[in-house]
Amino acid sequence: MAAEETTSGKPEESSGRRQRRRHPKNPDRQRDPVGTRRAILDAAGAEFGAHGFDGARVVRIAESAGVSHQLITYYFGGKRGLYEALSEQWLEESIRVSQTHTFAEAVRRYVHWAGEDPAWAHTLTREEPGTRPPAEDERAAELFKHVEELRERQARGEFRGDLDVGAVALVFFAASIAPVALPWIARELTQQDPTSPEFLDHYAEQVGRIISALAEATQATQDEGSPVNGEPKD
């Protein structure tokens, strides 16, 4: 089994000698731990988004964040720790985005989130098929919460009761990241720049309308089956 990459960008070697910890490149980082963590995570998000987990290098993350390799080890332990911290951050944001009044509005917010902070979408689409991603258990638990939330929305009539909740969740997620994951296809299909704010606003509104149409279809079905003057419709 290959050793996990250390902060130096090289496989870890067993040694009884303790390495001397160097100071961060930017002295201000020592006085601002919150800002330091944020800078490291921002750099890590860009690195994972560009290269995936296997291709990401801690040395590049350190250089981009303006910190020493050892400081990343101090805060996160290594590449896997960075990925798990990012996954936790993304899951927390996912919960915040989903806590809206309607399903349609939640979809609009996801579209904007993916367009304005595309690193997480790029990271997901770069994962190798058939492999177990880091932080898989935490991600699976969060996805289960989303499915249960959609089941509750379905019970409230926010979309049709004859639709499979898991399939709806997958379509909703795919639609949210499509312009980021498939920019060329998005450009050709819409004849717009998928990275522009104008496209993002328009696309988010259209996807929200599609979701709203499912709710309207539910209401229309209920209206068709409702009794008139005490008698059900034929």
UniProtKB/TrEMBL annotation:
It comes from the Bacteria. This is HTH tetR-type domain-containing protein. Residues 1-36 are annotated as: Disordered. SUPFAM superfamilies: Homeodomain-like (SSF46689), Tetracyclin repressor-like, C-terminal domain (SSF48498). Residues 25-35 have a biased composition (Basic and acidic residues). It holds the Pfam family TetR_N. GO terms for biological process: regulation of DNA-templated transcription. GO terms for molecular function: DNA binding. Residues 34-94 form the HTH tetR-type domain. It comes from Streptomyces flaveus. Signal peptide: none annotated. Keywords: DNA-binding. Residues 57-76 bind DNA.
